[in-house]
Amino acid sequence: MIVGIIGLGLIGGSMAIDLKRRGFAEKILGVEADPVNAGAAEKIGLADEIVSFDECIDRSDLVVIAVPVGTAVKMLPQVLDRFAESGAKDKIVIDTCSTKSQIVRCVHYHKMRKNYVATHPMAGTEYSGPWAAMPNLFDGRACIIANAEESGAKAVSTVERLYDTLNMRPLYMNADNHDVHTAYVSHISHVTSFALALTVLDKEKDEKHIFDLASGGFSSTVRLAKSSPDMWVPILSQNRDNVLHVIDTYLDKMKAFRDAIADYDEDKVRELIEEANRIRKIIR
Amino acid sequence: MIVGIIGLGLIGGSMAIDLKRRGFAEKILGVEADPVNAGAAEKIGLADEIVSFDECIDRSDLVVIAVPVGTAVKMLPQVLDRFAESGAKDKIVIDTCSTKSQIVRCVHYHKMRKNYVATHPMAGTEYSGPWAAMPNLFDGRACIIANAEESGAKAVSTVERLYDTLNMRPLYMNADNHDVHTAYVSHISHVTSFALALTVLDKEKDEKHIFDLASGGFSSTVRLAKSSPDMWVPILSQNRDNVLHVIDTYLDKMKAFRDAIADYDEDKVRELIEEANRIRKIIR
């Protein structure tokens, strides 16, 4: 099968590596808008050919849209339009975006809707671009397939085979539920890390000391603050209502901590920490 | 040298392992108030003998206080008193606590002050107790030596040799500065993790989904929320003013994010993320 990947960054590039070497794709066609990234992707060997957007759609059996979600919502209807124009009934397009409600909504009434499968492979690092692509990135992680009932059965089964090749566990979910859940387990983590980095950078002018004193705890808590604005601005924008709801809950919890510490109320601080410790049940 | 370690948990137990096997201590005497922990420490072999507090002070050349800081501030004067009573002029006591201002202040006028060296080895995990002790925990990390000028030169040089054995980089710092810096690079990270765990646990009743959807990012951001209240209640209490100051800055940053997202102000969100990305300069 010929797989076209639009966006050869962390996600698209890592998919390219494993889909090729594990035999799912006989050929990878890559589309990369940024010329520097395109050159790097070609040198690293992420794609067999770098082609134009139109050529990618026309020559691929399966197209992967792996660009920031703000761009993806504009690109997906163009891909389905081109499928329709060229009479390509069996071609498949998927996206890999971290928010699903809006992208699913934007093609809900498209006549080629069944050729699209909405997915979110829950894997990544805080790095981006073709240099961040790596083998085995997806192994053992979960992949959401959203609103599968709106896609064609054959398309879904091909996409399941694709994610099986990447060693991912499929999870089926409604797009709106997906966006609520990811606000809690992914998006808020990024916001708290960004805020932590801003706090420390703002006050700690003597950067040498941050570096010296930062033990493993700080590094792991602040790691996500290195994440790219190109990816995160549109995510926070598209999942605005859910993210705001979670931020408000978070602010309440933080204020409860602040008040207990300010009041010298050690019993309350202990109670809050013991409650937080219940996360041990869930995260090993 | 005979080393007495009071508190055979993560820090005390890990020190015991490496000080013994690397030849700094010919014998480790352990004191452990909790009988279950004492039994475990003995079985794991963290100490050659479990002894009473008094016996530990009397028989050791160097005593390590590795208990939560609330207990340590009461214990340190007792150790120095017993040094004085028994005429032990050359014995040394150190503590390993995460806050330094209060503990240093509480023995400032003690006649045996020169026998005490205030230290903070900046290493650890989110686990606690003798089961959490491990070899090589301290390798390559920084160790603060606070107010070294108040300690005797010979005591400081012995303690430097101890931390050199643990492969730690010594950093010399005023105790008050230490507490400001650690509020930024350690204590606030714990508070943000606790608040994140509380937020997610509060709202996400379907714990299966947290587990399924939690990618590496969430796990690393929430990891510190597993930390023990026995350790953290006294730290937040003793470093109250600095911690409150940092929490207030953090709340301001979080509100700036919230407002930008609420206002659909993508330029502002991008500006905040780009500013947060500067943490890349400091944390690899």
Could you describe the 3D structure shown?
Two copies of one chain form a homodimer. Chain A contains twelve helices and eight strands. Chain A starts with a strand and ends in an 8-residue tail after the last helix. Chain A has two domains: 2-173, Rossmann fold, CATH 3.40.50; 178-281, 6-phosphogluconate dehydrogenase C-terminal fold (Orthogonal Bundle). In chain A, helix 7 packs across helix 11 (240-262) and helix 11 (240-262) packs antiparallel against helix 12 (266-276). The first copy, chain A, is globular, with a radius of gyration of 21 Å. Chain A has 284 residues and is of the alpha/beta class. Chain A has an eight-stranded mixed sheet, with helices on both faces. The longest helix of chain A has 29 residues, at 175-203. Helices cover 54% and strands 13% of the residues of chain A. Chain A has helices at residues 10-21, 35-44, 53-59, 69-85, 101-106, 153-165, 175-203, 207-213, 216-222, 229-238, 240-262, 266-276; strands at 2-6, 27-31, 49-50, 62-65, 92-95, 116-121, 142-146, 169-173. At the A-B interface, helix 7, helix 8, helix 9, helix 10 and helix 11 of A face helix 7, helix 8, helix 9, helix 10 and helix 11 of B.
